[in-house]
Design a protein that fits this description.
alpha+beta; 150 residues; 4 strands; 4-stranded antiparallel β-sheet; single chain
Length: 150
């Protein structure tokens, strides 16, 4: 069964549902290709990769620079729209759930809010790939000590 999670980001409440398996694997492959060079830059420094897994952005300067150098705006937009197919939003945190895949809703919610977009995209990644991220934390000794079974 696909799980859904909710999180307030900025002024909005988002509900993200997992992407079905086959599509999720395809998305993961695209994401890996997109961020691979940045991960490679981090891999040169074990502390930096631990910082990434701990979300300590203060240690990520070189990796973020590599990622920004390789960013393809069309690919970022496509990833956002792919995840939007599996998300809903309550604009202002109230009212009815709206489909984020609706282009007018998407544009309104993220207008002037790149931070909200990146927060939502990160949340979408967490909902879909938390077991992968947990495995990375365990490999670097940064896990919670609990067995992550997915």
């Amino acid at each position: 069964m696909l799980k859904s999670e909710e999180r307030r980001i900025g002024d909005h409440l988002f509900r993200v549902t997992q992407v079905p398996g086959t599509k999720s694997i395809r998305l993961f492959t695209r994401i890996t290709k997109l961020v691979g060079p940045a991960i490679g830059a981090l891999a040169k420094d074990g502390e930096a990769i631990k910082s990434l897994l701990d979300q300590d952005v203060g240690q990520l300067g070189a990796a973020l620079q590599t990622l920004c150098d390789d960013l393809n705006p069309d690919e970022i937009e496509a990833l956002g729209k792919d995840f939007a197919k599996h998300a809903r939003v309550k604009v202002g945190g109230e009212g009815e759930w709206m489909l984020l895949e609706n282009e007018a809703v998407f544009d309104d919610v993220f207008a002037g809010g790149v931070d909200v977009f990146l927060g939502w995209l990160g949340f979408s990644l967490q909902v879909n790939y938390s077991s992968f991220l947990a495995a990375g934390r365990k490999l670097t000794g940064r896990g919670s000590g609990n067995d992550a079974t997915g």
